[in-house]
Amino acid sequence: MFTGLAKVEDLAKPKTVLGAATVAPAGQVPIAFDLIVDSSNLSKAEVYAIQARIEVGGSTWFASPEPTHVDLAKTEEPFSILLVQAGGKSAQEAAGVSLAGTQWKILGLDGKSADPSVTSTLVFDADGAVKGNAGCNTFRGHVDIEGTMMKFGQLASTMIACEGAKSAQEALFHAALGQTESFTIQDGELTLVNAAGKAVARLGPL
Known about the structure:
By secondary structure, the protein is mainly beta.
């Protein structure tokens, strides 16, 4: 999920933020936003600027290359700011990689490390097909990937009775797949992200 963030700063007082706004989910560009500034905090220098960025899963993908000056006396006029792709590794890797033919194992689910005694896997085949083992039962199905957006379809699974750690991790894994809306790849790890921008699963190469 894309999250848009914008803030207006007083350039006469470095690091002084006069107003900020968050748009989540941000949807497609252009992203509309409103900034509210307390006029009592304005300085006589009248040197103000707006900075903005777009994040996915807490990583900055697009950002304003430098502060963009703004005239706060013209508050009724629309203001546009152009963002450029950030130089962050996750944005570049995720945008340019094909997951087809890759195999992964779960390293963490819902912010916690995976059980070392349980192996949960996810394999991306060609044409959007996916398969794996959630911890006890195998599964297969389809995933739609467009850019860094990712949505798993209905997954068919075997029905072996599982207990203990295998059952618990399998439930968390399927829940994570069902919540996934986007993904990032950084430092060789694949992270599945939900609609709120939270990482729900962390995977490493199998």
